[in-house]
Amino acid sequence: MNSIQAIFINILIPFAIAFIFSLIVYNGAKVPSFLFNIVPYLFYALSILIVWVSWHFNRNRFIFVILPLILIHLGFEYLSAAKATQLFLYASVVYPIHLLIFLVLKERGLFSTWGLLKIGFMLLEILGFFYLLNYPNPAIESFMDIKIFAISTYPLKDISVVVGFLVMFIISALVLFNRYLIYNSTFLLILISFYGGFYFLKTPYALDIAFLTIGVMIFILLIRETYRLAFYDELTSMPGRRALIEDMAKLGRKYSLAMVDIDFFKKFNDTYGHDTGDEVLKMVASKLLAVSGGGKAYRYGGEEFTILFPSKDVNESFVHVDILRQNIADTPFTVRNKKKTKKIFINISSGIVQNSSKDKDPFSVMKRADNALYKAKDAGRNKVIKA
């Protein structure tokens, strides 16, 4: 289960965006009307930017999320009143499911087999909408009119509300238990904003503002995702080497640095396989991320990690690194195969140093920490050596 702190941090940005735009709609009478008149154009411009950036960075999920909104908005603008009403009803049911599908599906390239299947799926959706808008089906319309609740959910149909709550429940579960919090939390607020715009359809400019809100959320998510890809390790969710270099440039006059390595990791990989080795890396990373004493852990590469302790001397940092070493050594790791399960224990070794006037830069400190790490290896492993 994800921590409350992690959920709060990830949901704060999309919630703040939704809250600000909600205040704008609520105080619409105080806002100059010409600003509301440009909202649709802002939405289209932002959508085009999202498509271009998503294409450039191969993040096609965002393209599949924003394109249906563009088509829905164009439909409301240019279709007849009767067809726009039908579009409203169908979109209120289909788009939340569409949103969930493209949240769950992984990024696999736009022109890969999976990417082409996604394109085909969305084209089928578009053709389905086009057909139903031009050739209404009495059975589907009767289904849409099913009464479920005693209270009125107008202008939404009861079936739309049921679908919305079901999708919201699934995405909320993903927020709680799935590791991709950055996506799940934003998609949850996108869903809420979508239904908010549809429910307050008759409130002046509410729908336009809702679509712009979703566009801003997607664009901010795209920026955050690009940052994550650049600075965070995909396997362990730890800050990577680039983040380490950036943070080392900000260090003050006093700091300490630890290099950490998993003992006998190559032998472990050869014995149990790389998939199990990846699980070991994730387990060790989760322990390192919980380092106390103001330290921050990074994946340096392979089975090697770095921990920075800003404003801490080597003796203070040694205590916290040694606690980590003992914690990892005491944590059993279960290896599973087809025949049986086996519990093993993982050990780490570490070398830790403090910067000095002789060091030209933080990389010199890192080199000394690396030398101390090799001393810990030579001393029998499962040790922390300070130099």
In short:
This protein has 387 residues and is an alpha+beta fold. The chain is 64% helix and 11% strand.
Topology:
Layout: H1 4-26, H2 33-37, H3 39-56, H4 60-78, H5 81-104, H6 113-134, H7 138-144, H8 158-177, H9 181-199, H10 206-231, H11 241-248, E1 255-262, H12 265-272, H13 274-289, E2 296-301, E3 304-310, H14 314-329, E4 332-336, E5 341-345, E6 348-354, H15 362-378, E7 384-386
Helix pairs in contact: 1-9, 1-10, 3-4, 3-10, 4-5, 4-10, 5-6, 5-8, 5-9, 8-9, 9-10, 12-13
Structure, described:
The protein has 15 helices and seven strands. With 387 residues, it is an alpha+beta fold. It has two domains: 228 residues, no CATH class; 146 residues, Alpha-Beta Plaits. The strands form two sheets. A five-stranded mixed beta sheet has the order 2-3-1-6-7, with helices on both faces. A two-stranded antiparallel ribbon has the order 4-5. Helix 5 packs antiparallel against helix 9 and helix 12 crosses helix 13. The protein starts with a helix and ends with a strand.
